[in-house]
Amino acid sequence: MLKATPEKVTERTALRINPAKTCQPIGAMYAALGIHRCLPHSDGSQGCCSYHRMQLTRHFKEPVMASTSSFTEGASVFGGGSNLKTAIKNIFSIYEPDVIAVHTTCLSETIGDDLNSIITQAEVPEGKYVIHANTPSYVGSHVTGYANMVKGMVDYLAQNSGKANGKLNVLPGFISPGDVREIKRILNLFEIPFIMLPDTSGVLDSPMTGKFEMYPKGGTRVSEIIDAGNSEYTLALGQFASTEAATALEKKCQVPLSVLKVPIGIEATDAFLMQLVKLTGKEVPEILEEERGQLVDLMLDCHPYFYGQKVAVFGDPDTVIALTEFLISLGMVPRYVLTGTPGESFTRTVEQMLQDAGLTGTVKNAGDLFELHQWIKKEPVDLLIGNTHGKYIARAENIPFVRFGFPILDRYAHQYLPTTGYKGAIQLISKMADALMDKKDRECPEEEFELVM
Amino acid sequence: MKKVVDRALEKYPAKVHRARKEHIVVKEKDDEVPVITANTRTIPGIITKRGCCYAGCKGVVLGPIKDMVHIVHGPIGCSYYAWGTRRNRGKAQEDGQNFLEYCFSTDMQESDIVFGGEKKLRQAIKEAVEIFHPKAITISATCPVGLIGDDIKAVAAEAEKLYGIQVIAFNCEGYKGVSQSAGHHIANNNLMKYVIGQGELKPGKYAINILGEYNIGGDGWEIKRVLEKIGYQIIAVMTGDGSYEEIKNAHKADLNLVQCHRSINYIAEMIETKYGIPWLKVNFIGIQATVETLRNLAEYFGDPELKERTEQVIAEELSEIQGEMEYYRERLRGRKAFLFVGGSRAHHYQELLKDLGVETIIAGYEFGHRDDYEGREVIPTIKIDADNKNIEELKVEKDEKNYRMILSPERYEELKQKIPLSYYGGMIKAMNKNSVIIDDLNHYETEQFIKILKPDMFFSGIKDKYAVQKMGLMSKQLHSYDYSGPYAGFKGALVFARDVDAGVFTPAWKYVTPPWKIEPMLEGVVEEVAGC
Question: Which residues in chain B are contacts of A40 at CB distance < 8 A?
Answer without folding.
Answer: none
